[in-house]
Amino acid sequence: MARQGIETAGAADQAQTSQEQQFLRLMSHEMRTPLNGVIGMLGLLQRTRLDGAQRAYLESARSSAEHLLGLVNDLLDYARLEAGKLEFDAAPVDLESLVRGVAELLSPRAHEKGLEIVWSVAPDAVDIVADEGRLRQVLFNLAGNAVKFTESGGVSITVERVNGAASRPKLAFIIDDTGPGVPVEARKRIFEEFGHVDASDASRFGGAGLGLAVVAKLATAMKGSVSVGDRPAGPGARFRFEAAFPAVKGADRGQPLAGHAVAVVTPDPFVQAAAAAQIAASGGKVAPDAAVVLMDHAARAAGCGLAARPAHGRGIILLKPSERDLIARYKGAGFHGYLIKPLRRASLAERVLAAAGAMTLKPGLPPPPPADDDRVALTRFSGTRVLLVEDNPVGSLLAATLLRREGCAVETAASGYEAVDAMKRARYDLVFMDMRMPGMDGPSAARAIRAAGDQTPIIALTAHAFAEDRRTCLEAGMDDHLVKPLELETLRTSLARWTNRAERAKVAAG
């Protein structure tokens, strides 16, 4: 009888825990719906004419709403992890695209604080098979935490190979910052639920201390580890996530700068180190007397509007996105191109080769100018109303950022149920719908929308490019699909295709 009583009590405890977790998940979803509406409306208001005080009030309101949304997202993630219901979807991961995306997603926040944010991936850190969404979540939480607590200097995201077999390398994802660091006595506590370095951190910086607890649980779920220590090169902290992953066979990033030397002039040690790492990863080398010079706008002399053109060699100016208006002035001053920070390795190699005159040319034709960086290009889809349906907060932020960068007005939904309700309330030009969501998944939501007679184009967001996934999308009434993580060019192609009514044509299952 005693044993039966213990088992009954255990079952009751499990049932109560399950009910509590279910309630937390439900309330998290319910809170996100109005919060997304608040943030969306504030974003629309931000595009109207406002005086200085009104804009300051609006930005404070939006910052507060985003802090609250971050807390809700952390609570939801934590509830899923506690319930053991977090699923992993392994697929090939382009490490450079992953790390670059996290850095660029955080760059507006970093640049607003006067920080530099940089990234690099070591040549021997090969592409891997992993759940890209969960890996991005780890990096985003760690790097976002670094940006939050750093008041001056910068944040660096690097990937190195530490050991492991060729078929299963062990990688280290390292986030360095120049913030206050983490005292030894707090280094374990900050990875615990509601843990902070100092009790005042919650009120000073926002958040409940769940972000790093989520990272710790995700690291354990990926059979890895996460730790924090002092930054070796000076004041600040170093967060380190290590795990082994299967390698992607045959992946090769190329060595476009083989045989080329590049000089780097910048006052910032993070920018210097990241540029040098990207040059080396491209097969080039850094030399002070090189024929091509990367010149940071931040290296200009005090009181000067522009940095001086290199005395020898061809200059490429490094600018933040907010400094895009200086591009024409620098070209007029004799610079041979520009790069936007945080730097992209592929763009760096392309600009260096163009400046060096080493681009592959057809006989009799002038060298084509490198394409403008999309971070400074004019928006192409201004006013396009998009409903983005994605339950993963980091994936949602990534997709929404890309869409808004193209000029779209984006409303978000975190589930199929929210998507169906949103389609009843408002009209959209396009819907991007995640395939796998708890409760009502993407195909079920698409069927419900079509059953109501709504023919708005619906684009599925899928983790795989398998024919079965495409067929499932189309059979559910969707019109097309995009494979995650979203690439800018494929996103632009999809926007152009499905916002042009004359060219709409449902894709074949293939």
Helix-and-strand structural type:
alpha/beta
- The N- to C-terminal Cα distance equals 62 Å
Helical proportion, percent range: 40-55%
- Quaternary structure of the protein: single chain
- Estimated share of beta-strand residues: 15-25%
Radius of gyration, CA atoms, in whole angstroms: 24 Å
Could you describe the 3D structure shown?
The chain is of the alpha/beta class. 42% of the residues lie in helices and 18% in strands. The protein contains 14 helices and 17 strands. The protein has helices spanning 2-46, 52-83, 95-112, 132-149, 201-205, 211-221, 269-281, 327-332, 345-356, 393-405, 416-425, 442-451, 467-475, 488-499, and strands spanning 91-93, 116-121, 128-130, 154-165, 168-177, 225-230, 237-244, 261-265, 285-286, 292-296, 314-319, 338-340, 385-389, 409-413, 430-434, 458-462, 480-483. The strands form 4 sheets. It has a 5-stranded mixed beta sheet. A 5-stranded parallel beta sheet has the order 9-8-10-11-12. A 5-stranded parallel beta sheet has the order 14-13-15-16-17, with helices on both faces. Strand 8 (261-265), helix 7 and strand 9 form a beta-alpha-beta unit. Helix 1 runs antiparallel to helix 2 (52-83). The chain is globular. The relative contact order is 0.08. The model is unreliable at 199-208 and 502-510 (pLDDT under 50).
